[in-house]
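Worked example

This section walks through a single chain of length 176. The input is the sequence exactly as stored; nothing has been trimmed or padded.
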Amino acid sequence: MPVTVRSVKMNSMAPRSPAGDAAGSPRSSRSPDPPQAAYPDATALEWAAARVGDRWTLLIVHALLGGPLRFGELAEALPGIATNVLSQRLKRLEGDGLVISNAYSARPPRFSYELTQAGRELAGVLALLAHWGAVAGGGEGVRHSACGTALEARWWCPTCDRPVEDPDDEGELRFV
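Given that input, the structure is written out below as tokens.
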């Protein structure tokens, strides 16, 4: 199988500051730049996983897809999350440009949180991940409400107005 060269360019989010890694601990030897990998798409995946790859971050983004929530509302929507973990994840998401906080009370300081455009772009990823989890967990995936047929995710080229059936087969898929 031939190796397809793919180029990666990230525009929607600024690199994470060197203040902490994905777990929120100080970095000593890690750079905020994406790591170099044998395949550029693996580098893109590492870059994304460093921002949203832990359990709580994806669940926070999912909870915020419905609209802005206050800290207490988020804590209620995520049973089992410790308040310090929620606070750390929200600060990290805000630093990565996925969430913005809006003060609604000055004394005591209280905030509501909402997704930025970059954060809302994760909705499709979360839907695919949830579909995979349902099927892999022995359940059923997403079905078309009109006819009941199981839905499939496909790559689509809006310029060519056609699906890209097997992007790896023809080297058609490039990360730009």
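What to look for: The beta strands are 69-70, 99-105, 110-115, 155-157, 162-164.
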